Amino acid sequence: MTAAPTNLDNPCNNLALRKASRYLGATYDKALAPVGLRATQFSILQKLSAHGETTITSLADMIAMDRTTMASNLKPLAREGLVTVEPSPTDRRARIVTLTPDGLARMKAALPLWQSVQAQFEERFGAVEAARLRGSLDAVLQTGFAPWAE
Q: What b/e string do you get for 95-128 counting C-beta neighbours within 10 Å, with b at 16 or more?
């Protein structure tokens, strides 16, 4: 039996984005490995550093991630004492995420590694092109899809 032919004239936006994401994500993961963080974990710690304590749902929204995946990503950070996750005192259904002093220290230790790989990417890809890419990717988030809507 022969597989049905695919239309190779229609490139897949999702595949192109995921390939680039895996490539660049692995690059950032490798750069952050000496401090024991992955790129997603660094982003979470950085957002908490910038915004202070917040709910899991708000943090997930900031990073464009569904709440369940965010909760899973927080577990190893909580185990290592980098964040705390506690019930909200005003809404028992909500969980509040707080950056700990150890989490802030780890994020600060990772910052020069992140800055280095960020600079390397912008040097190789071009600073203007990198800014344009970030703008285009931000625009993708405004296309009206609701991937995590219940």
A: bbbebbeebeebbeebbebbeebeeebeeeeeee
User: Residues 96, 68, 27, CA angle at the centre, nearest 5°?
Assistant: 95
Q: Is 3 exposed, middle or buried (0-12, 13-18, 19+ CB in 10 A)?
A: exposed
Sign of the Cα torsion 56, 61, 63, 65 reads positive
SS3 43: helix
pTM: predicted TM-score of the whole model, two decimal places = 0.88
* 150 membership: H or E segment, kind and range: none
Amino acid, res. 108? K
The angle at the Cα of 80, spanning 79 to 86, to the nearest 5 degrees, equals 50
Write out the DSSP string of 95-145: EEEEE-HHHHHHHHHHHHHHHHHHHHHHHHH-HHHHHHHHHHHHHHTTS--
Helix or strand (DSSP H, E) at 74: helix 67-79
pLDDT digits (tens, 9 = 90+) for 66-90: 999 999 999 999 999 999 999 988 8
